[in-house]
Amino acid sequence: MKSLISATLLFIMLFYSVGSSGKWFEDSQGIMGTNIHVELWSDSAQQGEQAIQAVMEEMQRINQAMSPYIESSELSKLNKYATQDFVTVSKELFDLIWLSVELAKETDGAFDITFASVGYLYNYRESQKPQQGQIIDLLKAINYRHIKFDPAEQRIFFAHPNVKIDLGGIAKGHAVDNAIALLKKSGIKHALVTAGGDTKLLGDRLGKPWMVGIRDPRDRTKQAVVLPLADTGLSTSGDYERYFEQDGKRYHHILSPKTGESAYEVQSVSIIGRSSTLNDALSTAVFVLGVQKGMDLLNRTPGYDGIIVDNQRKLHYSNALVE
Ligand code: ADP
Ligand code: MG
To answer: What pLDDT digit, counting tens, does each position of 59-69 carry?
Structure first.
């Protein structure tokens, strides 16, 4: 009898300690020109807070290296000097630009980081856009083939005098991948990291899936779709993130490399897949490609699925999501 009581007590104590040992930690900060949000489950306040701090520091580090708005960033230096000579860059930047060029090939040039050769003339906050003549002059500089690599020396050269690159379509995905990798390494098992439109999930939400929404492109208070997800990533590109309206036209931040102007076939694209770096780039690429070519791309890319809201607000799902 006594041993039964102590066994019961032991059970209650064990149950109590398991039930109370962890807690959710969360924080949001404005970094990389967007909102960074982290949620994670941890057994200790110290570990939980340190892990969030580490994610925010990683976001700051990537911003300092890859922002085109920071003059001392590695990216800014590349844009300044690589039209004159090969420039040595970090392995991280070299690899991300290399991957970007591979994706340009895969997407028939829809994802092309040299879009910035014209793109840098848009300022969405100030409602500024390039003149038609400037677009015509600079359009030839938009071509990923101008980017030349010297892998042995980790150097990059732009073989056209007007080339500029911008990693805005892939760097946040990369940052989110890095953030989840470092959380995993520090022993965290359940986490969500979001940088603007790029979200990645580590594990589930303690036995339940994470519920991740895709917002209605024309109403920020409404969700178009909510998806139950775990251990994967979801990135959304939309024409509502950065834009201004002029003469009844919406000038937004996703540009067609063929025209140097905003792409108009769809309102948003969401991609689900394990790599946020790829989700980020693919969401931008499919946005430019439009419904038909975009879905063709997704349907031949294993492990990556997508949901498109077209310019008539109609939803389209890639094959694996409806099968
Ligand atoms: P965000 O999460 O900022 O909305 P997106 O994934 O929608 O980012 O990508 C939009 C960003 O991608 C733009 O702000 C710009 O920096 C970059 N971009 C725009 N057009 C292209 C393109 N055709 N190819 C590659 N990058 C692009
Ligand atoms: Mg993107």
So the answer is: 999 999 999 99
- Cβ pair 114, 165 in contact under 8 A: yes
- Is residue 93 within 8 Å of 77, Cβ to Cβ? no
Q: Ligand 1 centroid to 285 CA: how many Å? A: 9
Choosing among 3.40.50.1970, 3.10.520.10, 3.30.450.20, 3.20.20.70, the CATH entry for 209-323 is: 3.10.520.10
Atom of ligand 1 nearest to the CA of 280: 6
Nearest ligand 1 atom, CA 196: 2
Residue of 284, 289, 297, 309 to test ligand 1 pocket, by largest number of atoms within 8 Å of CB: 284
The answer to whether 199 and 79 are in contact (CB under 8 A) is: no
Task: Give dist(CA 190, CA 213) in Å, integer.
Answer: 18
- Find out if CATH 3.30.70.420 is the number for domain 74-158: no
Where do the domains of the chain lie?
A: 22-68+170-195, 74-158, 209-323
Assign 21 a pLDDT band (cuts: 50, 70, 90).
confident
Q: What residues form DSSP beta bridges with 210?
A: 229
